[in-house]
Predict the structure.
Amino acid sequence: MTAKLELKRLAKAFPRGSEPPLEVVRDFTLEIRNLEFLSVIGPSGCGKSTLLRLIDGLILADSGRILMDGRDVTGVVGGEGRGMVFQSFDLFPWRTTRGNVEFGLEVAGAGKAERRERAEHYIRLVGLEGFEDAYPHELSGGMQQRVGFARALAIRPEILLMDEPFGALDVQTRDILQDELLNIWSTEQKTVLFVTHSIEEAIYLADRIVVISPRPARVERIIEVPFDRPRHERIKSLPEFLQLRQEIWSLLKEGVKI
Ligand SMILES: Nc1ncnc2c1ncn2[C@@H]1O[C@H](COP(=O)(O)OP(=O)(O)O)[C@@H](O)[C@H]1O
Ligand SMILES: [Mg+2]
């Protein structure tokens, strides 16, 4: 079966004036299966966000290829079929919930009626009914992240790229949103690439976990997560869960030189 997304020997370095370029992604090769939930974990600064931005077409790789359903999409700017949810609540402060969710549809050239209808659908899906006309500053962190999520879903991407979306939230909100994300993922039929620095979150959500090396980012290890779905909080205290957490922790610790 063709992979949903194939990353083939991707490389990216950033120029640094007179110094040699900063090598951030090196020889990065990975196959992402159709409809899988893949967590990506790695030390801070290792190149995870850069990797997502490469996949989304926001920046261009120096070398390597990106294939989606076997089609070459390397260098296709705009991320057709790919939707991004960022860590911080990067909402437009001057737009309401509805305005933010409609944004991607406007860019895509959707008509007004279609925009309205789709925005309403996804606003309901993320549980923000009644907050359509609220501005970001009137919403809690968790609610703002729901808006970001609805905005990404509204363009109906086949692949959802999520960059530490719950990183700035309190633990309770985070737990709730994790379960909601899993619900939405199971009904909306998406392939998800979820970057996190929480080992527990990576395991709880994913089918597989990719552990990334310190910069320059390469695939250090791919781990299959052995737990059934639907997932439930209680798996977090199972011995298998704790063992897996320890294993990933050791991998991350090995790579980090303090
Ligand atoms: N546009 C850029 N120009 C120069 N350096 C960058 C740029 N984007 C990221 N970097 C550098 O690349 C490294 C990896 O960054 P990033 O991908 O954000 O890591 P992570 O998301 O894993 O924390 C960091 O050292 C960062 O400073
Ligand atoms: Mg990052």
